[in-house]
Specification:
The protein has about 210 residues and is of the alpha+beta class. It has one helix and twelve strands; from the N terminus they run H-E-E-E-E-E-E-E-E-E-E-E-E. The protein is elongated and about 95 Å long.
Length: about 210
């Protein structure tokens, strides 16, 4: 049946269809690399955000427990602060208990873990919380007075009567990136120092 005079023919011709397909193919060629790039960027951003969230969680927990650290009497040597290059142990009032509880943060085989006591009914046991994994190495450093008359300074380990004033923790990931966390210990006198932005640490120049 022929269309009536003046009535446009419905549909596309073969030539018009081929032109449309060619245009769509050209658009796809342009957009596919851009889409792939956007996907990679989004994945990388998600990874970075996840890493920042983990690092922030580690720093928040350290600040919470260390700022509420308990300083026992000098006669109580078992409860005083002690630290090495890979771990720290101290008493804190930041747990659910009404009395000071021992807490430790330690690095072992690629994992940074927090250990704290937990009361299960009448039985007390230790609970371990994973702070960060896939860690290449860590390094704790301690700023304070060793009691030898030399004034405050930085130490790689701490086993003195008085607690340190400041604790610095370097967390080195497998990709070589380093995060520096610095936390002031609660219960110690206020202090000022010259801060080195290059190294990211307090140099210990007390004003």
């Amino acid at each position: 049946m022929r269309p009536a005079p003046g009535q446009a023919q419905a549909g596309f011709t073969l030539l018009e269809t081929l032109i449309a397909v060619a245009i769509l193919a050209g658009i796809a060629v342009v957009l596919v690399p851009a889409i792939r790039t956007a996907v990679r960027v989004e994945a990388r951003t998600t990874s970075l955000v996840g890493g920042l969230e983990v690092n922030a969680a580690v720093e928040d927990l350290m600040r919470e427990f260390l700022l509420r650290a308990y300083r026992p009497p000098r006669s109580d040597t078992s409860g005083r602060f002690s630290g090495s290059s890979t771990s720290i142990r101290f008493l804190t009032l930041a747990t659910a208990s009404q009395s000071p509880e021992p807490v430790s943060i330690a690095f072992d085989t690629g994992r940074l873990e927090l250990t704290l006591p937990q009361l299960d009914g009448e039985r007390r046991h230790s609970q371990t919380v994973l702070l960060a994994d896939e860690v290449e190495r860590v390094r704790f450093m301690y700023f304070g007075e060793a009691g030898d008359g030399r004034g405050p300074g930085w130490y790689e380990a701490w086993d003195f009567d008085a607690p340190p004033r400041l604790i610095a923790l370097d967390v080195v990931a497998h990709d070589g990136s380093v995060q520096r966390i610095e936390v002031r210990l609660g219960g110690v006198a206020a202090f000022d120092c010259r801060f080195d932005s290059g190294q990211g640490i307090c140099l210990g120049d007390i004003e």
